[in-house]
Design goal:
46% helix, 510 residues, 3 domains, alpha+beta, Butyryl-CoA Dehydrogenase, subunit A, domain 3, six-stranded mixed beta sheet, disordered C terminus, Butyryl-CoA Dehydrogenase, subunit A, domain 2, binds fe (iii) ion, 19 helices, binds iron/sulfur cluster
């Protein structure tokens, strides 16, 4: 899609799916080039999940639509710049609902969080450097809102030797960098790993992945690129059990309709015109951008509480089908799963409630609580999955296939011997067990488990941020005050910094 061929606004999931057809993308999956991803049985569930972000604007407009200051028209929240505390809270509510509806990663939050982070960072770069990135970004946001597009945020570089800075790597392409500039724009080369929903996007916003130094100036590049720009290769990520999508039937897939998507993106001399460049060499702003993006994104992981709702429901259904829904240990496990799941939601939405306004007017959520939310997400889905597997029983992983169930020769044996409660068809029991398998071992375990661990930064990244902000001095002062230990009054607990974070004044909710 070029800048001059802006489509009419995409309003439905179906129209979105149509918008992905006939693009000239270079995609590889299992060593072969794919001509059209839209009808590819392995890729299609991930496209359906993004389509749900359009459909929700029709079915739940109160969650997914708001008014855009850029166009004056209603806009899908995934493209909206948060201008209030309420905007951030509503994002979380929409994310939980979409997790419930899809049981997977619906991929569109990366772009939302990238645009919001860039909105304030470009403002602050311009303020210091006299550049005009903010104006360019605003024009780009308007374009995406008018057409209702999907934006992919491309941040994670492949990184090479982790002990070395980008410019120190033996291969300079291990971080995305500018390889050429002229009066028309810049050309970039390099690769980005595990890019969520990249093929399902219309535009990619490329961003640096970490703090950069003076010698890394060529790596300090932010720009927007159409997904079908010449020079981009997509290498599709494998997912556990992905080939089940190629089989007959749909029971063994567990969740045949929805899935996530990650791919490796390779850029070879990809052109970005100046009007789509939002950072060029301002290396000292790279860490601010990464921190603001991860601040938004780490509380976006409330999506997993929506997915957790599905898994809790599946575990309760299995117990019900087995005839033991009221057994006390089962109730207790379901209570434990719910308690854990709500902990994710509580911390995410609390971070959004504790937001504050940046200089640009865009609201930014609380960084400490966002990191606590994401740190919970690195653990809690694993424990919920363990409990779901406990309730599912071993049959989940020893069960015969749908083909066996359909077999004229042995199908009746499966029907007879896998029967639990009299009034529950064996087929339904198999379906719910396959859903639990899908979410805890199969394709959607990518999103629910390992992505929960590493997406938006691995657990250690959150521990570093929590450590930086834990304000131990103030906490020690609290203790010393109560213990009546004499100290310098200037070190009193009532420091402005402490009060600002912990008791941040509430902003009006619109
Ligand atoms: Fe959105 Fe969650 Fe997927 Fe991230 S993991 S893109 S927050 S659905
Ligand atoms: Fe992610």
């Amino acid at each position: 899609m070029s800048d001059t061929s802006i489509p009419t606004p995409i309003e439905t999931g179906e129209a979105y799916i149509e918008s992905l057809r006939n693009r000239n993308l270079k995609i590889f999956y299992r060593g072969e080039q794919i001509s059209d991803p839209v009808d590819h049985p392995v890729i299609r569930p991930s496209i359906n999940a993004v389509a749900a972000t359009y459909d929700i604007a029709q079915t739940h407009p109160e969650l997914a639509l708001t008014n855009s200051p850029f166009t004056g028209n209603p806009v899908n929240r995934f493209l909206h710049i948060a201008t209030s505390q309420s905007d951030l809270v509503q994002q979380n509510k929409m994310q939980r609902k979409l997790g419930q509806l899809t049981g997977t990663c619906f991929q569109r939050c990366v772009g939302m969080d990238a645009l919001n982070a860039l909105f304030s960072v470009t403002y602050e770069i311009d303020e210091k450097e006299g550049t005009n990135y903010h104006q360019r970004l605003s024009a780009f946001i308007k374009l995406t809102q008018e057409a209702n597009l999907v934006i992919g945020g491309a941040m994670t570089d492949v990184k090479g030797d982790r002990s070395k800075a980008p410019h120190e790597q033996s291969d300079p392409d291990l971080f995305v960098r500018i390889v050429k500039r002229d009066e028309s724009g810049v050309w970039i080369s390099g690769a980005k790993a595990h890019q969520t929903g990249c093929l399902n996007s219309h535009w990619l916003v490329v961003m640096p992945t970490m703090r950069l130094g003076l010698h890394d100036k060529d790596y300090a590049i932010v720009g927007a690129i159409p997904v079908d720009a010449p020079g981009i290769t997509y290498i599709y990520g494998r997912q556990s059990c992905d080939l089940r999508s190629l089989e007959e039937g749909s029971i063994d897939e567990g969740n045949a309709q929805f899935g996530g998507q990650e791919a490796m993106l390779v850029f070879e001399d990809v052109f970005i015109p100046w009007e789509r460049v939002f950072m060029d060499g301002e290396h000292e702003f790279a860490s601010m951008l990464v921190e603001r993006f991860t601040c938004y994104h780490r509380r976006s992981y409330v999506c997993k509480s929506g997915v957790g709702d599905v898994l809790i429901g599946a575990a309760a259904t299995v117990a019900d089908y087995n005839g033991v829904p009221k057994a006390s240990h089962i109730r207790d496990k379901l209570v434990e799963m719910t308690h854990l799941n709500e902990t994710i939601y509580a911390t995410g939405i609390a971070s959004s409630f504790q937001s504050h306004e940046t200089k640009s007017g865009c609201f930014l959520n609380d960084d400490m609580i966002a990191n606590v939310c994401k740190h919970h997400v690195t653990k809690i889905p694993f424990e919920i999955s363990r409990l779901a597997q406990d309730l599912a029983g071993g049959l989940m992983v020893t069960m015969p296939s749908e083909a066996d169930l359909e077999s004229p020769e042995i199908g009746h044996l499966i029907e007879k011997f896998l029967k639990a409660r009299d009034d529950v068809p064996t087929r339904d029991r198999m379906k719910i067990l396959r859903l639990i398998e899908n979410m805890t071992l199969g394709r959607n375990a990518v999103g629910y488990l390992t992505e929960s661990m590493h997406g938006a930064g691995s657990p250690q990244a959150q521990r570093i941020q929590i450590g930086r902000q834990m304000q131990l001095d103030e906490k020690m002062t609290l203790a010393k005050d109560l213990a009546n230990i004499k100290m310098d009054q200037s070190k009193s607990v009532h420091t402005k910094q402490y009060l600002d974070r912990v008791f941040r004044p509430e902003s009006p909710i619109d």
